[in-house]
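Run: sequence + uridine 5'-triphosphate -> complex structure.
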Amino acid sequence: MMTYTEAYKKLERFDQLHVLKFYDELSPEEKEELLRQIDETDFSVITSAKASGSEKGKISPISVLQLDGIEERRSSFEKTGAELIRQGKVGAVLLAGGMGTRLGSDNPKGMYNIGITRELFIFECLINNLLDVVKKVGAPIKLFIMTSDKNHEATVAFFNEKNYFGYDKAQVHFFMQDMAPATDFDGKVFMETKSRMATSPNGNGGWFSSMKRGGLLTVINEAGIEWLNVFAVDNVLQRIADPCFIGAAAEGGYAVGSKVIKKASPDERVGVMCLEDGRPSIVEYYELSDEMRDQLDENGEPAYNYGVILNYLFREKDLEALAERTLPLHIVKKKINHIDADGNAVIPEAENGFKYENLVLDMINMLESCIPFEVVREHEFAPVKNRTGVDSVDSARELLKRNGVAL
Ligand code: UTP
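>> structure
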């Protein structure tokens, strides 16, 4: 472990010496805790995130497999997908390392009870959706669950307490993602306590390298998994390991499939699929120019009309090939609890600093080919980001009811 002098030098290099402000007040154990954290923390994310601006290449429309095209080939796609599942070639990866700050619950987001007259947890909705496929196809599907330092124990304990909601426990593997320091708007690391820097999960983009580090590549390879369906914790309606989607990606020989929905309006705040310098890519809603927003295709439809819902199907061997490549870092504004210069606890009402994140959508651009696969919004998109309003507990409940889920 680092000595005080080494820690001082490291912090000085990154202009973060305030981290040692309360050092003299700490107990020997706390001193050790802080030195260890300084040793383990990668402060370069703060500087490199600032440097990695979002220089985009030349954007052009991507062709989307739309609902009518899927219907025409549905039986073939479903047969191919179901066969791959039966051969054990498909795994699912739940991204549940986020903090869910907008929902504002202290527990992991998946523990949120979205039921009204009965208990129905977000994790339970997802497991139920996956179990639909397991039962229909008649084969088990491995489920990998990404957690973070902040919610790992609570998540694992919850799954145990709920008996994995009827899922075969032997098919479930947990792994933890990495943390990154959280800073104020000037890039100074916040202190969570006098002996701990504030950290937050480093985004959902590092999932594959975290799986690798967690030793799960062996599990994947031994099981013969060729496709990984990565999905977010908060969309309670999404279909997971959807045989039709898998069949479409596999039959077409694509490196990745991306479930997309038709945008509700040109200004809807979703990232849209496109090509960037001829490779698949996603333009975030805040990067969408007016020109792109208004551009029409040869059928008179908006040329960038399909938004991503964070449900991707990756061809596993392509991920192994890009595992060593570094993803760009994004700076995200968030509310961060911390102590002030006098050591008093601060619980901010509004966003007060930055977190540094890798995003899964940046992996898409590193792959050769992608099939955007249209799904019906009302049937497959009910994200729970907020308590009320857009993408909320309220809107998701409404959608669940409409899809026949008893609440
Ligand atoms: P969000 O972008 O909604 O972030 O995550 P969040 O941290 O969960 O929520 P807010 O913004 O604080 O309210 C989209 C998906 O990516 C996962 C989340 O768990 C969710 O499934 N995620 C996000 C991670 O797994 N790790 C991260 O570091 C961030």
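>> summary
DSSP finds 14 helices and 19 strands in the chain. The CA atoms of residues 48 and 55 lie 14 Å apart.
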